[in-house]
């Protein structure tokens, strides 16, 4: 036989179709187990932990090229950046003072009304190390995991708004499902009139939608949507989206609104995972 | 290049010259499959993901055709599981697609081996495209979600890259070019 120095003289094994059907059965069993029950989390976690160092090594040349090109930045550009950042820091300081007074005022008011104090969450900074190129979902991998105390379910934000949610935690890494994923949603409230809605992903990085909107809902182009905090997952007050256009009901009894995500979904390398604070009664 | 003793254009019945000196070894098969897997694990740009061909499958199919005893269903299954984990897909999705593609290639490998790379492309194209379609369909069925059908384009890119890949691997194993000099 050609190219088969190891070929035995007499073949003693199952035929190709039999072996193939066994493998197909194994694959179908795996698929069903993974899709219906999360019985294979340990296998996936173990393999991911083994693959992670390899992916880090493969990404190294790219990181180096980034660093080298970053090294040759003109002096003038650095100076401009520095000035801009200083101005921004001053603005932030003023805003921070404002926030402190508002917070104390809010707390006093809450005490007066005998409402529970607002819970603050603990931030963990993480870096996006990989995006998952899947035709079915929008997910990224961050470099913080179970060992750093991260757990599935925690919200992920960046400097400008909500990014997504941790959906799986492996020892070294975590999987974040972005807000723009088809199956992801977030409860929000309109900043203008307090209308409560649910924003869902569409699979595109630049578009979110509000499905099943009441025909007469008071929602207009330009409305800002913030998390309402009533689901117990996302803390209240994180910017989520801005309404781009609304669509009257067609074929269905419901209207729709399309929004632009405010968080840098799919843009930045660093994100903040919020550890939910234990709610005090 | 290699010495061709025959004065005719016909392909010799047995491999000649360098091919006999450098048959595909287990090491070569494993190393090339590993290299292909690494190629898919590189941090490709997000916008180009849907055009990224499945290098692992292409190399796997090449070996299924040219060294069926060294690359079979077992290797296809394991590579599929690793690919599934690295891409965050349902476990077994790529494994099933790889096994199916390897099965078809293995069952007709004797015929495929007789074609030169350009003609092979036409024979391999349904396999590469069918794998993408199978993954998208199965993912939709088991994941109960919608698929981004742009990813079919990855199959077309893979088809167009088959010729260079086959020629490169032919070169590595010292297979004589079938369409070499006409006497």
Walk me through the structure.
The complex is a heterodimer of chains A (281) and B (183). The N and C termini of chain A lie far apart (78 Å). Chain A has a domain at 120-281: Thrombin, subunit H, CATH 2.40.10. Helix content of chain A is 32%, strand content 27%. Chain A has helices spanning 16-36, 41-71, 75-113; strands at 122-132, 139-142, 155-157, 162-169, 174-178, 185-190, 196-201, 208-213, 224-227, 239-247, 255-261, 270-275. In chain A, the strands form 2 sheets. Chain A has a 6-stranded antiparallel barrel. A 6-stranded antiparallel β-barrel of chain A has the order 6-7-8-11-10-9. With 281 residues, chain A is α+β, with helices and mostly antiparallel strands. In chain B, helix 2 (26-41) packs antiparallel against helix 3 (55-66), helix 3 crosses helix 8 (153-173) and helix 5 (93-107) packs antiparallel against helix 7 (117-143). Chain B is globular, with a radius of gyration of 17 Å. Chain B has one domain (22-173). Chain B has helices at residues 18-21, 26-41, 55-66, 73-87, 93-107, 109-113, 117-143, 153-173. By secondary structure, chain B is mainly α. The chains are: A alpha+beta (281), B mainly alpha (183).
Q: Which helices and strands, and how do they pair?
A:
The complex is a heterodimer of chains A (281) and B (183).
Chain A: H1 16-36, H2 41-71, H3 75-113, E1 122-132, E2 139-142, E3 155-157, E4 162-169, E5 174-178, E6 185-190, E7 196-201, E8 208-213, E9 224-227, E10 239-247, E11 255-261, E12 270-275
Antiparallel strand pairs in A: 1-2, 1-12, 2-5, 3-4, 3-12, 4-5, 6-7, 6-9, 7-8, 8-11, 9-10, 10-11
Chain B: H1 18-21, H2 26-41, H3 55-66, H4 73-87, H5 93-107, H6 109-113, H7 117-143, H8 153-173
Structural class of chain A: alpha+beta
What's the level 1 CATH class of the domain at 120-281 in chain A? Mainly Beta
- What value does the Rg of chain B take, in angstroms? 17 Å
The total of helices of chain B stands at 8
Beta content of chain A:
25-35%
Structurally, the number of domains of chain B stands at 1
H-E order of chain A: HHHEEEEEEEEEEEE
Most strands sheet of chain B: none
CATH topology (level 3) name of the domain at 120-281 in chain A: Thrombin, subunit H
The profile of the biggest β sheet of chain A is: 6 strands, antiparallel, barrel
Order of strands in the sheet with most strands of chain A: 1-2-5-4-3-12
Could you name the CATH homologous superfamily of the domain at 120-281 in chain A? Rod shape-determining protein MreC, domain 1
User: Structural class of the helices, strands and pairings of chain B?
Assistant: mainly alpha
Q: What proportion strand of chain B?
A: under 5%
Order of helices and strands of chain B: HHHHHHHH
Distance between the termini of chain B: 14 Å
């Amino acid at each position: 036989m050609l190219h088969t120095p190891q070929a035995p003289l007499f073949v003693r094994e199952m035929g190709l179709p039999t072996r193939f059907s066994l493998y197909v059965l194994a694959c179908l069993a795996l698929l069903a187990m993974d899709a219906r029950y999360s019985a294979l989390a340990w296998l996936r976690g173990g393999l991911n932990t083994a693959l992670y160092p390899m992916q880090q090594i493969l990404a190294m040349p790219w990181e180096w090229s980034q660093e080298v090109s970053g090294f040759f930045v003109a002096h003038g550009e650095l100076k401009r950046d520095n000035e801009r950042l200083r101005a921004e820091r001053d603005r932030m300081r003023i805003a921070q003072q404002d926030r402190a007074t508002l917070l104390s005022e809010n707390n006093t008011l809450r005490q007066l009304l005998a409402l529970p104090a607002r819970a603050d969450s603990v931030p963990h900074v993480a870096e996006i190390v990989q995006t998952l190129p899947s035709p079915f979902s929008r997910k990224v991998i961050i470099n913080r995991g179970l060992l750093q105390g991260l757990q599935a379910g925690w919200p992920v934000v960046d400097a400008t708004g909500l990014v997504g949610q941790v959906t799986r935690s492996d020892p070294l890494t975590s999987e974040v499902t972005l807000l723009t994923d088809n199956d992801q949603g977030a409860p929000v409230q309109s900043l203008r009139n307090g209308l409560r809605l649910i924003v869902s992903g569409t699979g595109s990085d630049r578009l979110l939608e509000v499905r099943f909107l009441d025909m007469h809902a008071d929602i207009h182009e330009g409305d800002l949507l913030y998390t309402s905090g009533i689901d117990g997952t996302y803390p209240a007050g994180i910017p989520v989206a801005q309404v781009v256009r609304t669509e009257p009901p067609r074929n269905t009894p419901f209207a729709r609104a399309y929004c632009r995500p405010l968080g840098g979904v799919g843009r930045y390398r660093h994100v903040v995972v919020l550890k939910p604070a234990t709610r005090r009664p | 290049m290699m010495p061709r003793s025959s004065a005719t254009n016909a392909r010799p019945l047995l491999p000649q010259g360098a091919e006999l000196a450098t048959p595909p070894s287990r090491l070569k098969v494993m190393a090339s499959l590993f290299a292909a897997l690494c190629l898919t694990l590189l941090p490709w740009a997000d916008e180009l993901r849907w055009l990224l061909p499945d290098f692992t499958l292409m190399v796997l199919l090449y070996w299924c055709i040219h060294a069926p005893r060294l690359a079979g269903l077992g290797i296809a299954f394991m590579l599929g599981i690793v690919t599934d984990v690295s891409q965050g897909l349902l476990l077994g999705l790529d494994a099933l697609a790889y096994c199916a593609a390897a099965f078809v290639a293995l069952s007709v490998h004797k015929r495929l081996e007789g074609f030169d790379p350009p003609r092979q492309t036409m024979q391999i194209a349904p396999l590469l495209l069918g794998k993408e379609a199978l993954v998208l369909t199965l993912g939709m069925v088991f994941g109960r979600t919608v698929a981004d059908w742009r990813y079919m384009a990855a199959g077309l890119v893979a088809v167009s890259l088959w010729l260079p890949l086959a020629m490169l691997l032919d070169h590595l194993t010292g297979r004589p070019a079938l369409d070499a000099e006409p006497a």
